[in-house]
Amino acid sequence: MKIALLTGWTWLERDVALRSANTFHENMKYEHDMYVLPDEMDRFLSHYKEYDLAVPVFHGEYWEDGTIFGLLDSLGLKYTFSPFATHAVCMDKNKTNILVEKIWIQVPKSHLISNKKELQDTIFEFPLIVKPNSGWSSVATYMVNNTSELEKAFDDVREITKDIVLVQQFITWVEYSVPIIGNDDLEALPIMRVALTSSKFFDYEEKYNSDGSNEIFWDVEANLQKHLEQDSKKIYHFLGCRWISRIDYIVNDTGRYFLEVNTIPGFSPASIFPKAWQLTGRTLEEIVEKIIRLGR
After folding, report:
1. 22, 267 in Cβ contact below 8 A?
2. CATH number, domain at 154?
3. What are phi and psi of 290, to 5 degrees?
4. Domain ATP-grasp spans what residues (predicted)?
5. Both 123 and 97 in a single domain?
6. Is 96 in the same domain as 232?
7. 165-207: per-residue pLDDT in tens?
8. Distance (Å, rounded) from C-alpha 260 to C-alpha 238?
C-alpha cells in the first residue's frame, strides 16, 4: 500500500496541522509521501494515481470543512476520516448545535452575528464566549464581560478569521473532551478534563503552549463518564462521523452541554487524542495502523 499524506494550508492553523501530520509521518509503516498544500498541489495532482489511500491531516477552513474530501472524491482516491458532508456540517458550529439539539442534547445559548448592527441590536447576558463560527484550535476565541469587550472581540474575530461570529452563553463549568475511534464498532478513549491554569477557559495558549498539567485524564465520576460516552457515540453516529472524532462538552450542576465536534482532532505531541490513546497502553504506531486499516 502506498499513501499520500496531505497537510498544510491556512496560516491560522497551519502549524498545528504540520505538527499533527508529522506524528503520522513518524509512525506510519507504509510507503508514503507527504504533500504540504497548497504549495505542492500541482505535484500531488500529477502523482495522485500512484496512491492507494490519502490521509488528509488539516485543521481549519478550506480543508477540515470538507473541501479536500470533495477534491479526493472527484479524483476517485480513497481517504481516511469522515466524508465530505460530515466535515462541512461539523465545521459550522451553529448548524452542528441546531442538529445536536434534535437528539435531545443540551447546547449553550448562541447568537450568530454577521455585522455590527446585529451585534448592537441583540440583547446579551454577560459573560459571553466570542469565537469564529467555523474554525478550531481555539484561535480568536475570547471571554467578554461587557459591551465594550464584546465589540472589541467581535472586531478581532472578524479581522483575524473573516468569519461570521458566534456569541455563546458562558457557563461556569468544567470542560471535557471525549475521543472516539471507529466506524460501526465505536471505542471511547479516556476522557480528558480541563483543569485551567492561567485562563478562565481553554483558549489557544492553554491548549497548545502549556506544559500539559491542565489536562487530567481518567478522573471522571463513573456516572458522568457513562453519559458522556453514550452522548458522544450518539452524536458521532447521528452526524455521520467516521474513523476518529473528538467531542467536547461543558458540564456543571445543571447538566451536560455539547460544545463541538472536531472531525480531524489534533495529533501533535500536545494534542488530546494521541495522549488518550497512549493511556490505554497502545503506541502511536498502533493508532496510525488502526486508522489506515479502517480506510481499507
Report:
1. no
2. 3.30.1490.20
3. -65, -40
4. 97-293
5. no
6. yes
7. 999 999 877 899 999 999 999 999 999 998 765 555 555 455 5
8. 14
